Amino acid sequence: MDIAVTAKLVRGWVEEAGQLLRESLSNTSIVVEEKSHPSDLVTEMDRFIEAFYVEKIRKEFPTHQIIGEEGSYGEVDNMDGYVWIIDPIDGTLNYVKQKRNFCSMIALYKDGVGIFSFINDVINEDIYYAIKGKGAYCNDKQLENVTTYPLGKGLVALNTKMVMLKPTLSKKIIQEALGVRLIGSAGLEMVQVITNRVSAYVTTPLNFWDVAPGIMIASELGLKCSRTDNSPIKMLEKNPIVIANENTHQDIINIMKKTSNIDV
């Protein structure tokens, strides 16, 4: 596989999917369903965009494994060989209620290592991507490596469940930082870290498709990404994560260690 050629091909898919999503926002008849609870939604566009990607992958790369949020494409219990990871709409609740603050993500891993990854900030028409060993980009502009600085010098992003389920721990992190920001899309929260708009993103357990694309991009920019106990990210499992510049990451891990028995 020529990685550069394949990444260019996939970028075309990502651009087309983004256009389809923007056009869908004017459709008032889109079917919305609840999954596990009222704030956990799926729409026909989630399924449509995922099917769009799957069709493209199966046509070009029929032997590759596929992991998608909304579907089953054969049991994937390992990361051997080429594995595609798809989150068609990350931030579906925002897509439905706000018509903004959502993204579409796709990544390719080989033997557990990210090869390339795309996060499409659909409304702003910004496509963030990385190719292993070639750096990270927003559209065609290369992103600079994120500088390292302590927690107290930057903003932090938390997911909603972190604030709700770990209130004491969340408060301690927020008190050490300059402030907190919440968007409601893991992909866009990770973009905030990748572009140095916030210094860290801390979460309760998220599905692998929520974080795999962002982790791949972060790795190209020298960011630290681990589980909240500082252990490595576990492939194909839910992970509570800390993604941050090196100094901020260590500061947050230190807080986690000191307060490991609270909010349990």
From TrEMBL:
Mg(2+) 2 binds at residue 90. It is an enzyme of class 3 (hydrolase). InterPro entries: Inositol_monoP_metal-BS (IPR020583), Inositol_monophosphatase-like (IPR000760). SUPFAM superfamilies: Carbohydrate phosphatase. Its EC number is 3.1.3.25. Its cofactor is Mg(2+). Transmembrane segments: none annotated. It holds the Pfam family Inositol_P. Gene3D superfamilies: 3.40.190.80, Fructose-1,6-Bisphosphatase, subunit A, domain 1. One of its GO terms (biological process) is signal transduction. Mg(2+) 1 binds at residues 69, 87, 89, 210. Keywords: Hydrolase, Magnesium, Metal-binding. GO terms for molecular function: inositol monophosphate 1-phosphatase activity; metal ion binding. PANTHER family: INOSITOL MONOPHOSPHATASE, INOSITOL-1-MONOPHOSPHATASE-RELATED. This is Inositol-1-monophosphatase. It comes from Jeotgalibaca dankookensis.
